[in-house]
Design brief:
Helix content is 33%, strand content 23%. By secondary structure, the protein is an alpha+beta fold. The strands form 5 sheets. The protein has a 6-stranded mixed beta sheet with strand order 1-2-6-3-7-18. The chain starts with a helix and ends with a helix. The structure holds zinc ion. The site of zinc ion has 5 residues, from loops.
Length: 450
C-alpha cells in the first residue's frame, strides 16, 4: 500500500537517477533530418529507456516501423480505465554546434539545467513518463486501470514512422480513455497568479497550391504572349489582405486576458487591438493572434525557365493553418473567394488535420488536481489552450482518446524556450522533477491506486 504522498516523495529520492537517465538520453543522438525512413535512429533511445524499465520489472516492447525507427511501448497493467503517457524520442538537427554554450549532445549540467538537443523537446517527457512507471512499479502500487507509455519516433517530421504508424498498425496497443502529450509547458505569470495552459486542440496544417496558366512567348514582344505573373501577383496581394473569420470563443482567450488584467472581454473586433497592447509579452500576443484565426501565408513561387521567356504558368504555394473544424473544403472555398476573377487552379492538401478534445472534460479537472499535488500548492489556474502547431496528439484523437498537451514546467523555469529547435536547448532539473511528480499523481488520480 502506498499513498500518493509517499509516491511523490519517492520522486525526490530518485533525483539523481532521473537526471542521470535524462543525461544519458540526451547523449544518445536521435536526429531526425526529414520525412524519410533512414533517419532518427530512435531504437537506440528506446533501448536505453527499455533497460531502465526492465530493471524495475516492467517488460516493454520496441516496435520498429523501419530499421532503426523504434517506438517504445510499456504498460503497468490494471483493470479499468486506460491512461496513456505520450512523448517522442527523435530530435531536430543542430545547425551550428559552435553557437552552443555546451556541446549539443553532452547532457552537461549547468545552473540547474541539463543542456542538449532534445533536453526539452521531448526527452524530458520521455524520462518523466518512464520514471513514473518505474517508481509506481517499485513501490508495488496496484493501479485500478492500465497505464501505458508510448515514446514514439519521428514526431519532428510528421510521425509517419512514429505515432502515426503505431495508430495505424497497432491501434489497440495505444488506444486509451485519456492521454497526455507534449505541450502546455511554460506557465504564464500574471498579476492574478500563475496560469498553466493545457492544450486541448491544435490547428491543422494544409498546403494550398495555386496555378495560373498563360501562354509563353519571347519577352521582347510581351503583347504576343499571355503572361501569368501579374495575375499571381494580384493573388498574393489579395491573400495578404485576407480578412479571416475570427474566433475567440475558446476559453483560453478569456481566462488569460482576464488574469492579465485586460478590461475588455475579447471579441472578434477588439482581439487585434488587445494583442497589440501586450507589448511586454510578444510571444503570448502572437500566439493569441494565431490561435484566433486561420492563416494563409504565401511561401513559395515557381515560374519561368529563362529570363527572356514569358513563362506559360506560375505556381504559388501557401502554408495554411486552420482552426479546429476548418477543413480542406473550407480552405478551398475561401481561396476561391479571395482569387475570384483571376482564373486560378487551386489544390489543397493536408499535412495535419485540425483536432481537439473537450475543454470541459472531467480529465482536465484531474490534471488540475495532479499539478496541484506536484507543485505542492493550489495557487494557479489551468487554462485550456489551442496550440498553433501540431503534435502526435492528432493521431490518437481519432482513436477515441481524449488527448491533452500537458507537460508543465516549473514556475521558476525560463519562460522563453528559445532553445527548443534553436541553440542552447536545456531542461531545468526542477521541471524534470515536477513533471515526474505530475505523471505519478495523474496516474494515481485517474486510475486509482492501492
Ligand atoms: Zn516535440
Amino acid at each position: 500500500m502506498s499513498t500518493i504522498e509517499e509516491l511523490l516523495a519517492s520522486v525526490e529520492q530518485a533525483r539523481d537517477e532521473i537526471v542521470g537517465l535524462h543525461q544519458a538520453l540526451v547523449r544518445t543522438p536521435t536526429i531526425n533530418v526529414g520525412p524519410r525512413a533512414d533517419t532518427g535512429n530512435e531504437t537506440a533511445a528506446c533501448e536505453l529507456v527499455a533497460s531502465k524499465l526492465a530493471e524495475a520489472g516492467i517488460q516493454p516492447e520496441i516496435i520498429e516501423s523501419a530499421p532503426g525507427r523504434g517506438n517504445l511501448i510499456a504498460r503497468l497493467p490494471g483493470e479499468g480505465r486506460r491512461l496513456l503517457f505520450m512523448s517522442h524520442t527523435d530530435v531536430v538537427p543542430v545547425e551550428d554546434e559552435t553557437l552552443w554554450e555546451h556541446p549539443p549532445f553532452s547532457g552537461t549540467i549547468d545552473r540547474g539545467r541539463v543542456y542538449g538537443r532534445g533536453a526539452d523537446d521531448d526527452k524530458g517527457d520521455v524520462v518523466a513518463h518512464c520514471m513514473a512507471l518505474v517508481l509506481l512499479q517499485r513501490a508495488g502500487a496496484r493501479l485500478g486501470g492500465e497505464l501505458v507509455l508510448l515514446a514514439a519516433a519521428d514526431e519532428e517530421s510528421g510521425g509517419r514512422w512514429g505515432a502515426g504508424w503505431i495508430a495505424e498498425h497497432h491501434p489497440d496497443k495505444v488506444r486509451a480513455d485519456f492521454a497526455i502529450n507534449e505541450g502546455g509547458s511554460s506557465p504564464i505569470q500574471t498579476p492574478h497568479g500563475l496560469i498553466y495552459p493545457i492544450c486541448t486542440g491544435e490547428k491543422g496544417r494544409l498546403e494550398a497550391r495555386l496555378t495560373k496558366k498563360g501562354r509563353s512567348g519571347h519577352a521582347s514582344r510581351p503583347w504576343a504572349a499571355d503572361n501569368p505573373v501579374p495575375a499571381m501577383a494580384e493573388a498574393v496581394q489579395r491573400i495578404m489582405a485576407y480578412d479571416p473569420e475570427i474566433d475567440v470563443s475558446h476559453p483560453f482567450f478569456r481566462e488569460v486576458l482576464e488574469a492579465l488584467g485586460v478590461e475588455h472581454v475579447p471579441n472578434a473586433e477588439n482581439i487585434d487591438r488587445i494583442c497589440d497592447g501586450l507589448t511586454d509579452r510578444p510571444a503570448l500576443a502572437t500566439t493569441l493572434k494565431a490561435a484566433s484565426r486561420m492563416t494563409i501565408t504565401p511561401t513559395m513561387v515557381e515560374a519561368g525557365v529563362k529570363s527572356n521567356s514569358i513563362p506559360d504558368r506560375i505556381h504559388l504555394t501557401c502554408d495554411v493553418r486552420g482552426l479546429p473544424g476548418q477543413d480542406d473544403r473550407y480552405v478551398r472555398e475561401e481561396l476561391e473567394h479571395i482569387t475570384q476573377g483571376l482564373d486560378l487552379e487551386i489544390e489543397v492538401d493536408y499535412t495535419a488535420v485540425s483536432n481537439d478534445s473537450p475543454a470541459d472534460s472531467s480529465f482536465v479537472d484531474l490534471c488540475r488536481q495532479s499539478l496541484g499535488l506536484a507543485l505542492g500548492h493550489q495557487e494557479f489556474r489551468l487554462a485550456p489552450a489551442i496550440t498553433v502547431g501540431f503534435t502526435d496528439s492528432r493521431f490518437l484523437r481519432p482513436l477515441g482518446t481524449q488527448v491533452y498537451g500537458f507537460a508543465p514546467h516549473h514556475p521558476n523555469a525560463e519562460p522563453a524556450r528559445t532553445g527548443v529547435h534553436g541553440n542552447n536547448e536545456f531542461m531545468e532539473i526542477d521541471s524534470l522533477l515536477l513533471r515526474t511528480r505530475n505523471a505519478v499523481a495523474l496516474a494515481c488520480l485517474t486510475l486509482g491506486v492501492a
